[in-house]
Structure formats: structure tokens, C-alpha cells
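Issue: ligand-bound run for magnesium ion - logging full I/O for the record.

Environment: standard queue, default settings, no custom constraints.

Inputs:
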Amino acid sequence: MTTLLEVSGVSVSFDGFRAINNLSFQIGAAEMRAIIGPNGAGKTTFMDIVTGKTKPDEGRVIWGERSLSLLGLSEARIAREGVGRKFQKPTVFEDQSVQENLLMALKDRRGPFSVLFYRPQRAHLARVAELANEIGLSDQLRRKSGELSHGQKQWLEIGMLLAQEPRLLLVDEPAAGMTPAEREHTTSILVEAAKTRAVVVVEHDMEFVRRLGCKVTVLHEGSVLAEGSLDHVTANKEVIDVYLGR
Ligand SMILES: Nc1ncnc2c1ncn2[C@@H]1O[C@H](COP(=O)(O)OP(=O)(O)O)[C@@H](O)[C@H]1O
Ligand SMILES: [Mg+2]
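Outputs:
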């Protein structure tokens, strides 16, 4: 499998505390990967480093077939390189419809301005319809986004990220606050998305992780403690001690 992202020997300290400690791992170009581990293991900090929000003290973060180092790049530039990130709190425009939110997010459009002053082109509307179908909101296109349920807002935000056509999608604890049915729908959206891009999901819900059906990386104290299938890592004694057995 072609490697899309390679993190090697990365460390970062906050006030002398090593949140990421010589972290190394790789993500393939069309791979789904789950990251699990106890609170404070460094999962969110890993995403902060990849997206350029946090600069590591040491190590390398290498991207794509041109082996571009992401470390010197701004957050905006890294996003343009194709790294999308979903935060826990959805950031949809509540006063706009689902369709308007998706239109604004399209890659070849330039922000809210164009939605206000131009009639959307047929191709844009077709792409929005496709995205709405991918996230299961086809029958909600005219709804005001503020009226959507928590789960639907999360899906809309995933749709807005997919509209940017990222090559890597980072998703931090998507299942939090969702009903079991919403969680199931979220897994199917992510599984579908990972067919054509890399998707990295941090999640504590083991049922959710099982449904992703992917390789799992266990982080502990800022390093990889175990990696492999969910059955493989959950049978690991150290993983049970630091995470599962609590
Ligand atoms: N910007 C920051 N400043 C200070 N400490 C931080 C910062 N970001 C993360 N940390 C610390 O780094 C450790 C790892 O945090 P985090 O990556 O959020 O863990 P996780 O997402 O696995 O729960 C924690 O001890 C956290 O308090
Ligand atoms: Mg976190």
C-alpha cells in the first residue's frame, strides 16, 4: 500500500511534559485507521501536529508522493494539501440550509460570498446532491441547519469536509453524544469515505471501532503501544492494563 502520511520520531513537550514521545507510524493512501488509548495519551495532540496547529520539538511528518514535510507549513497550507479535520463541536452555519452549507464548502468555490451573489451552477448543485446522499441528508437539503439533530449536524460537517476533497480526513471522537443509530450511520459514512481517501478516527466506543473494521493503533503516553486488528490489540496485556481494564 502507498504511504500517504509518515510520522517518524515525533516528540512534543508542554511545560516539560512529554505529550508525544518519539511517535512513529504510517497511514496508507486509502486506509481507514482507528486510534484508541486512554485520556491524555496524545491522540488529539497527534492531530494538532499533522494539521500544523502544534509544532513538534523533534521528528518528521512526511506527506504524499512528493515526500513533502508538513512541519514548516501553515495550517491553511496543510489544509490545501488535502488534510481535513473534523472537530468534536460541529461548526456548520446554523442559519443556512443544508444545501447552502454544502455549497459554501465546495472546493472550487470561494466562501460564503459566492453563495450570496451568484446562482449556484448546475454542476455545483449536482455535487451537493451527491454529498448529501453520501451523508444521508438528501431529504434535508432545504432544512435550516440549526434545526438538525446533533447527529445530523455532525454528518453535515463531515459532508462539508468531504466537499473539500481531502486526501486525509482526521476525525476526533465522532460518536460522542450520538444515539446508537446515529453512531451506526456515522460508521457507514466514514467507511464509505475511506474507500477513496485515508480516514483516521479517534474513538473510545469499541463497538464503533469494531464496525470500522480496520487496523487499530493504540497510543499510550505519546507513543504507539500496540497496533493491528482490534482483536489483536484488545488481547494485548499492556493494552488491557493501561486502557481496557480500567
Ligand atoms: N496546548 C497544550 N498545552 C499544554 N498541554 C497540552 C496541550 N495540548 C495537550 N496537552 C497535554 O498533552 C497530553 C495529551 O493530550 P491529548 O493529546 O489531548 O490527549 P488525548 O486526546 O489522547 O486524550 C495531556 O496531558 C494534555 O493535558
Ligand atoms: Mg483527545
